[in-house]
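Section 4.2 – Deliverable D4.2 (structural model, holo form)

The reporting period included a commitment to supply a predicted holo structure for the target in complex with magnesium ion. Inputs used:
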Amino acid sequence: MSEAPPKIRIRGLSKAFGTKVVLDRLDLDVPAGKGFVVIGGSGSGKSVLIKCILGLIEPDAGTIEIDGRNVLAMRRSEREAVNARIGMLFQQGALFDSLPVWENVAFGLLARKMMRRPEAKPRAVEILAQVGLGPDVADLYPSELSGGMQKRVALARAIAARPDLIFFDEPTTGLDPIMGAIIDALIVAQVERLGATAFSITHDMASAQRIGDEIAMIHKGKIIWQGPADRIYDSGNPYVDQFVRGKSEGPITMEVRV
Amino acid sequence: MSALLDLLAAIGRGVFGLLSAAGSVAVFAAVALSHVVRPPFYPRLLARQMMEIGYFSLPVVALTAIFSGMVLALQSYTGFARFSAEGAVATVVVLSITRELGPVLAGLMVAGRIGAAIAAELGTMRVTDQIDALTTLSTNPIKYLVVPRLVAATIVLPLLVIIADILGVLGGFIVGVAKLEFNPATYMQRTWEFLEVQDVVSGLVKAAVFGFIIALMGCYQGYHSRGGAQGVGAATTNAVVSASILILTFNYVITELFFAR
Ligand SMILES: Nc1ncnc2c1ncn2[C@@H]1O[C@H](COP(=O)(O)OP(=O)(O)O)[C@@H](O)[C@H]1O
Ligand SMILES: [Mg+2]
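Output (structure tokens):
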């Protein structure tokens, strides 16, 4: 679809937990420098997919290439170098609740020795400003913030080390529609500023339209459709159609047992 | 016949489960130990854990030790009076405290307090993806979370037990002098007379091992917890129960190593 080599190329990726097959020989190309969104129902394996790419879950089979290099075959030090160029916004934020906001934001900078503590705090305050938070929140703890503010802090932490590939796991889930739109706008702005590739997963169609240039749908462990975001409502694929229109009737049957 | 087979199969499954759990705890411990000696080190986190484990356990351990010393003096006095051996009270108190009650009671109290806290904290971090977040921020969670707790508990428990030993003997002394009307000087002299370095050292070795066990079980259970708040609750209970059982088991083993000949 795209002329440039893909940022991420996944082939034959499989992962099962016990007898439950979550990813089933999944293939996926993620174009570089764009907003890419994977949609799919709850429990369809979207988070597992991201965790496999990040190396947090070891897949049973398959290859994952980032910038043309298979990350699953890398030595630990190489893998760490690749991961240092990646940012991740977790579904629930995953802020460290034992650390104040500024240390959360600066955590990657300090861990990678990109700066020392005295410089890190003013830098964290700058990054917080980019996501619309004032300097007064820097010394608060995550538990003292509202859900929307926590998402902003998590976003600040994800972009702090200027990654060129950023993952967003359901960035708007749990937020009201207005806050969701604000977070999406921040994501688009920051991704553009960094010139990064954004890989998001969501089941929120409004959000998918705002942050996605290209959309893929995951169902039963496979990518069943992939195309430009503006084609999502006339994909011609009955599964996609049912999902994006939120119809209860259609080829997708909800499995009650998980 | 088939009932018997079922029973055997159930026992077999239980034994197998226990062995595989023991194996994965051992692997976890070995991995953690391999990280103790490799940088980066986190002295700040170590200091914080020592404070957390040591300082805040002090009141519980101190109270337990004092009352144990007191009750030991009282019990051994009334018991020994039956064969006119009241003179041995001070010796019995100091030997029991330094060899057994100091380390074991401190270990069990700290297991309840710290083992549970560690499991709850790491368990919460696991189920809220904070442990994964560490990895994505170029930080090894074993080094960052597990190593400081293991090292801190191993260093701090012996220090706590030294204090427990002193307070336990003091508790015995108070009851001995104030209630049982021993002469203070004689009581103290009796305390020192038969005490050997090995008595204290064996207690401190036990304490270090117990500290390691408490932190290990807390970290292991927390690190591997799953399934939300309920999973964290289960991890917490398992950490305390398994640490307590291991403490009592290793208490016997270490005693055997030191004193059986
Ligand atoms: N560590 C794990 N162990 C066992 N099962 C898991 C694990 N992680 C995810 N799963 C299962 O995999 C399936 C997909 O989960 P997930 O990727 O989180 O879904 P979602 O698409 O909502 O993000 C779910 O059924 C979940 O129960
Ligand atoms: Mg998910």
